[in-house]
Amino acid sequence: MKLGGFSVGCRFGAAMLAAGLLTPGAAAADTQTITDSRGQQIVVPKEVEKVAIFPLPIPEAMIAIDGGTQRLLAINPRAQAALMNGVIGQLFPEIAQIRTDLVAPNFIPNVEEILKAAPDLVVQWQARGDERVAPMENAGIKVATVSTESRETRRGYIAMLGKILGKEDRAQAFLDWEDKTAADIGAVLKEAGRPEPRIVFIDSMNGNEFVVFGRDEAYFSTTGLTNAATEAGFTEGSVKVGAEAILEWNPDIVLVNYYNDAIKPANILEHPVLAALDAVKKGRVYKTPAIDPATAAGGEIAYLWFAEIGYPDLFDANMRTVVADGFKLLYDKELTNAQIDSLMQMDWNGESAGYADAFGAAQ
Is 0.90 topped by the overall pTM? Predict the structure, then answer.
C-alpha cells in the first residue's frame, strides 16, 4: 500500500535498517537475481515456494527439474487438460489439483486472483507482452518471460528454471543431454550427406483451412528436416494456409501436432484434397509423440523420434527404450508398455508407413 507516494513497506524497511534489525547484506542473502528471455533481471527469493507458469509446455519442465509439483502454484487450464489426458497426468495425478484460475486459456492473466495467490514468480510468454505481461508488472507482480523462438531461448528457460528452483545442476544435466543428442544426430546426418526431407507440421485444421508451423523450428533443423512453409517464405510460429498451398508444396512427410487431440493422421490420409500429396500416397503422415520437442527437459526424446521419421534407414534406436529411460531420468517414474504406446501415439499412427514395425512393442 502507498501513502503519499511512499510505500509502507519502504518505511518499514528503513525503520528496520535504522534499528539495526535488518542489514542490506542479510536482505540480499535471501534473494537471487534471474534473467528472463527479454534480458530483464528479476529479483526473487532464494527459497522460492510458489511459481505460477502460464505457457503450455513449461509445467512439465518444471516438474522434471524440481522432482514434482510441490512448488507449482498455478498453470494454464489448457495445460492441465492436456497433461491430465496424457501419461504425465497418470504419473502425477496431483496436477488435477493445481490452480488454473490465474490465467485464461489465451494466456491473459487474472491480475486480481494472482495478487490474492501471491506467487513468488509468474512465468509468462514474452510475446504480446502488452496484454500478457504488462498488467501484472504494473500491479507489482514479479514476472519472468520465456520464449520458444529458438533452441537458445528454449535452453534459456531451462537454465532459468534451474536457478529459480535451486536445481541448477539438474537443469544443466538436461542441457548436456540435449547437446549430446543433437551432436549425435548431426554426426550421422553429416556422414550420410542426404538431401533433407521436406515436412509440413499441421497444428489444426478446419475443412480445407490449416494452421501450420511457419518458422524453422530447432527440432526440425537439428534433425535434418526442412519446413516447406519456411521455404515458402513464412517466418511466424503459426500461419493459416489452404489445402491448395500444401498441395503445391508437396512435402515428403506430414506431421500432426500432439497437443491437438481433435486432429489425427486419418484426417489427413482421408482428406479429399491432400490425398494427392506424395506423403499421403506413401502413408508418411504421423502424429508427433506426446513429448514436447520445444524443451531441453525431454525434447531430446522427440529429437530422436523426428530423426527416425525422417531417416528410418539411418537411425535405429529402440525408441521404446529411449522413452522409458528418458522418463526415468526426467521424472523418476517407470512406464508401462501401455503408457509408452500412448506417448508414441501407437493407436493413431497404426496406419502410417512403417510405424508399427519401428515403434511397436514387439521389437
Answer: no
Q: What does the domain layout of the chain look like in residue ranges?
A: 31-166, 195-359
Q: Tens digit of pLDDT for each residue in 275-301?
A: 999 999 999 999 999 887 767 678 889
At the second CATH level, the architecture of 31-166 is 3-Layer(aba) Sandwich (3.40)
Cell of 37: 528471455
| Range 233-270 burial, b when 16+ CB lie within 10 A, else e | ebeeeebebebebbeebebbbbbbbbbeeebbbeebbe
Nine-digit cell string for 166: 535451486
Q: Please state which of the ranges 18-27, 140-149, 265-274, 348-357 shows the lowest mean pLDDT.
A: 18-27
Q: What is the 3-state secondary structure (H, E, C) of the chain?
A: CEECCEEHHHHHHHHHHHCCCCCHHHHHHCEEEEECCCCCEEEEECCCCCEEECCCCCHHHHHHHHCCCCCEEEECHHHHHHHHCCHHHHHCHHHHHCECCCECCCCCECHHHHHHHCCCEEEEECCCHHHHCHHHHHCCCCEEEECCCCHHHHHHHHHHHHHHHCCHHHHHHHHHHHHHHHHHHHHHHHHHCCCCCEEEEEEEEECCEEEEECCCCHHHHCCCCEEHHHHCCCCCCEEEEEHHHHHHHCCCEEEECCCCCCCCHHHHHCCCCHHHCHHHHCCCEEECCCCCCCCCCCHHHHHHHHHHHHCCCCCCCCHHHHHHHHHHHHHCCCCCHHHHHHHCCCCCCCCCCCHHHHHCCCC
121-158, pLDDT tens digit by residue? 999 999 999 999 999 999 999 999 999 888 888 899 99
Domain 195-359 has CATH 3.40.50.1980: yes
Backbone dihedral angles phi then psi of residue 26, each to the nearest 5 degrees: -65, -40
Identical topology for domains 31-166 and 195-359: yes
Q: Which residues pair with 3 in a beta bridge?
A: 6
